[in-house]
Design goal:
This protein has 304 residues and is α/β, with parallel strands linked by helices. It folds into two domains: 90 residues, Methylene-tetrahydromethanopterin dehydrogenase, N-terminal domain (Rossmann fold, 3-Layer(aba) Sandwich); 163 residues, 3-Layer(aba) Sandwich (Rossmann fold), CATH 3.40.50. The protein is built from eleven helices and twelve strands. The strands form two sheets. The protein has a seven-stranded mixed β-sheet with strand order 7-6-5-8-9-11-10, sandwiched between helices. The radius of gyration is 20 Å and the shape is elongated. The model has no long low-confidence stretch (mean pLDDT 94).
Length: 304
């Protein structure tokens, strides 16, 4: 094949996600080359092998995708790949470990849209509680909300100290102001949800973090979004396909956003970012700010 479009996937885990490979082919890459068990030290030589092998013209038909499951490590790999470029030998790089970035971008774009739909302004100043907040989707959603001016709490069943340590790590890196919260007991979760205006379920699959009993205490809650599609869902009473359906247990009839509804937007974000890389005339570096921008555009055009 002459002048093929090539995508190299750098992944620190044993297996490269079939989801990412499939999405890359959907974006019209001619060949997708997986590299597993990649360490941070491997990024420079792999990147430079990628860029120098195709010449200044060929790099325009070449991309790098960084996967894995560790959000912080993936961002470190993105930074290292960028520093390894030698213009004009430079390719686009897209980072999305476990789909966390595109999922969080879709999630927060939907939440933001429904806050505005309820005529409550935007995310500025809103009390956002992210249950399962120490996972990659939770952390990324927290960063996006915090950068929009929200008061963000990353909530963990391991306790506030664990959550605060992670919040401190990302606050220092991105100049945000997230806090840690405790959901190790029903009482602890109840004290948090009572003041929440936005609640997000980002825990692992099959774990319910907000029961109807807890939701009845959420007097200020206006939007609740869940990313867990595996029964039981993360937020009781939120259907996987819900997009704004009032949650019966909540005092103010909070708008519920389900996992598959978020997933539909996430899929479009993922696809569009790959296509941006594919079509770019100049190298792009795509992370959560770029994903959020695209998600907002998609939500604005699809939800009316």
């Amino acid at each position: 094949m002459k002048n093929p479009y090539l995508l190299h996937i750098f992944c620190p885990t044993k297996n490269v996600s079939p989801f990412d490979i499939n999405m890359a082919y959907e974006a019209r890459y001619d060949a997708v080359i997986p590299h597993s068990d990649v360490t941070l030290d491997d990024i420079r030589p792999l990147t430079q092998d990628t860029i120098f092998s195709r010449g200044p013209t060929g790099v325009k038909r070449t991309g790098i995708f960084i996967g894995g499951r560790d959000f912080g490590l993936a961002l470190d790999m993105l930074d290292e790949a960028r520093k390894s470029m030698v213009p004009p030998f430079e390719v686009s790089v897209f980072v999305d470990p476990s789909g966390a970035i595109t999922t969080a971008a879709a999630l927060m774009a939907c939440v933001e849209w429904w806050v505005r739909k309820r005529k409550k302004g935007d995310l500025e100043g809103k009390n956002v509680q992210i249950f399962g907040g120490t996972g990659p989707v939770g952390v990324c959603a927290g960063l996006l909300a915090s950068q929009c001016g929200a008061k963000v709490t990353l909530v963990s069943h391991q306790g506030a100290a664990v959550a605060q340590a992670l919040a401190d790590r990302y606050n220092a890196r991105f100049r945000t102001d997230m806090r840690g919260g405790d959901s190790s007991s029903e009482a602890a979760s109840g004290s948090l949800i009572a003041g929440a205006e936005i609640a997000i379920g980002a825990a692992k699959a099959g774990v319910c973090v907000l029961s109807e009993k807890l939701l009845k205490q959420a007097r200020k809650l206006m939007v609740a979004a869940d990313v867990n599609a595996v029964p039981p869902t993360g937020i009781e009473g939120v259907g996987v396909h819900d997009m704004g359906k009032p949650i019966a247990a909540t005092p103010a009839g909070a708008a519920g956003i389900g996992a598959l509804a978020v997933g539909n937007i996430k899929y479009k974000v993922h696809t569009r970012l790959f296509k941006k890389m594919f079509e770019a005339k100049k190298p792009l570096y795509l992370s959560f700010p770029e994903a959020f921008q695209v998600a907002r555009e998609i939500v604005s055009s699809s939800l009316k």
